[in-house]
Amino acid sequence: MQWIVNEVPDKSLLNTAGWRFIVPQLYKKFPNDDMNMNLSLSSPPVIRISADNIDATVYADLIIDVLDGPDVIPVACISLVFHGSGSVEVVKNNLAGSVKLNDFSMLLKWSKIGNLRMFIIQPIMWTIIETVFLPYVNLHLAKGFPLPITHGFTLQNAEIICSNSNIKVCSDVAIAESYDLSQLLIEKHFSYAFRDLQKIA
């Protein structure tokens, strides 16, 4: 996973002028240059599922890029560890969910602009995570992932059971209102007929 962030609610955070009092050497070297943030997973996330909760630890690298004319110049890399919790639900025939941030830590991995004071940068990163990263992730999780179900049917009264690192979905099944049962029978008939023809051939 890789995500280049070039839009945030506080636009000053994507220009070196907005960092001139936080990282003076950045502004001095690249005055009034635009920036972006290149976020990528550094290793697979660790997910723990129990009867009471779903916890996740996500490891990522955040590279700060300066846009100096036509050039994209990486100036620093910060290693991030996110600790969050989540919930899941069935939406139509999809398994959807949401996550919230419980805590995170950060460590300077490398820098071309000298040492960075992490304790000053951390509150800013928290704001970016809460206003940009989490809404983006939750937007995609809300759409959900399709559950395996026969075409023309839909889940009803679904119940989710979490235990021992497993997520189980128990549900009744009903014919979708917009689906014609006779069409399902025709599809099944042609499916079986095609299989019989393959055996003869």
TrEMBL record:
<dbReference type="InterPro" id="IPR045897">
    <property type="entry name" value="BPI/LBP_pln"/>
</dbReference>
<protein>
    <submittedName>
        <fullName>Lipid-binding serum glycoprotein family protein</fullName>
    </submittedName>
</protein>
<feature type="domain" description="Lipid-binding serum glycoprotein C-terminal">
    <location>
        <begin position="1"/>
        <end position="171"/>
    </location>
</feature>
<dbReference type="GO" id="GO:0008289">
    <property type="term" value="F:lipid binding"/>
</dbReference>
<dbReference type="InterPro" id="IPR001124">
    <property type="entry name" value="Lipid-bd_serum_glycop_C"/>
</dbReference>
<dbReference type="Pfam" id="PF02886">
    <property type="entry name" value="LBP_BPI_CETP_C"/>
</dbReference>
<dbReference type="InterPro" id="IPR017943">
    <property type="entry name" value="Bactericidal_perm-incr_a/b_dom"/>
</dbReference>
